[in-house]
Design goal:
By secondary structure, this protein is mostly helical. It has helices at about 5-15, 20-25, 25-30, 40-45, 70-75, 80-95, 100-110, 110-115, 125-135, 140-145, 150-160, and strands at about 50, 55-60, 65, 145-150, 185, 190, 195. The radius of gyration is 17 Å and the shape is globular.
């Protein structure tokens, strides 16, 4: 997937005001199929990542909130959330944290149904998913740990009452939010690791 240039981003901004922020996200270079050093990753995410009071890496979001985990980011249903998840994926890759890479990779695909519902992102969602899959497969453990359920993703995107955030979903009589089928299918066994389903 080719990254847009600053020139093309400026040209698009002239025709569609308010679109340049997408170019300024670190999402495009982070989805490139190439290794990143910790220094390069730090440069790409400068101003977006920091270390919080508890010593955990935090992602700064445009609404002035912070994120430490990928699951709530998947519930946002926007490119800011997906971009933050990909940042977490790439840090996990550089730090050789297989478990974190798997968790963040799964949440990246769980974010796609909401993006498919947006008319401006829907045409590029397949290309985005292919780029996500390429980055996921950079870590062999993640490549084998799950497969993407495209039928579930497309079904959720088409469901009239779908909402990515459980707090905004309809509730059953006991007050629990409606549950949806998962966008990923975890493998029962991971070859070479002999790890059972989590």
């Amino acid at each position: 997937m080719a990254s847009p240039s600053a020139t093309s981003a400026r040209a698009l901004e002239g025709k569609l005001p308010g679109t340049r922020w997408v170019f300024e996200l670190p999402l495009f270079p982070l989805l490139a199929d190439q290794p990143l050093s910790m220094a390069a990753l730090g440069r790409l995410t400068h101003g977006t990542t920091g270390i919080g009071a508890l010593g955990l890496r935090e992602i700064r979001l445009p609404d002035r909130s912070y994120a430490w985990e990928s699951r709530p980011l998947a519930w946002r249903g926007d490119l800011w959330g997906l971009s933050a998840i990909v940042i977490m994926m790439r840090f996990a890759e550089v730090e050789a944290d297989d478990h974190e890479h798997v968790e963040t990779s799964m949440d990246a695909f769980r974010a796609l149904p909401a993006l498919l519902r947006t008319p401006w992102a829907a045409p590029a969602t397949r290309a985005l998913a292919e780029a996500l899959d390429t980055v996921r497969r950079r870590v062999p453990f993640s490549a084998q740990a799950f497969k993407v359920d495209w039928e579930a993703i497309e079904g959720l995107a088409a469901a009239p009452d779908f909402h990515p955030d459980p707090q905004c979903r309809p509730r059953d009589p006991k007050g629990y939010p409606e549950t949806y089928c998962d966008a990923v299918i975890q493998m029962r066994h991971v070859p070479a690791r002999k790890q059972e389903r989590w």
